[in-house]
Here is the input.
Amino acid sequence: MNACLLPMLAVRAEPFDSPEYLFEVKWDGVRALAAREATGWRMWGREGADYTPRYPELEVLSRLPPGTLLDGEVILCQGGRPHLPALLSRHQLLRPQQIAALSRTRPVTYVVFDVLSIRGRMLFAHPLQARREILQGLLEPLNEPRLVFSAGVVGTGRRFFTEAVRQGQEGVMAKHLASRYRPGRRSAAWKKIKPTFRARLISP
Here is the structure.
């Protein structure tokens, strides 16, 4: 598997409902692809930067079948929800001793929302709905707290968005259930929906 493979990207949108779309939380973390290869596991980001040494606790990825490629978000929860500043303070560390200590005291979670290959069989052309069914079947038997399936709902995007924002989440992703995976490309089949805060003007 090529570490230069880049993640599929989304366009901005407003909240909407549609039976053709899956709606899931837009996780406030660091986007990362992860591969389980014959020699072990590795993880990299949008620019191809190697994230493997930064998150030794994600060695649990080695339990996946060789030839598996995942897409997801690395998060660090604080107060019950993802906390990006806390994650970035870990993400920027370079000293192995510091990284090892924090991997035990402040471990990250890899929230996985797509599978692009399994046992060497590429799934780019499969619809999102089929890929997620494969992904769920892959992760559930592992029962690993560091590897979490990103659940969602179909159809009720507006209500899901309202509830996600109420809980303090960054926003919502809307993905067409029939969409193919297009590495490194921005596609209207995936939409990111974030709250817009407008300043209230008060007349003197």
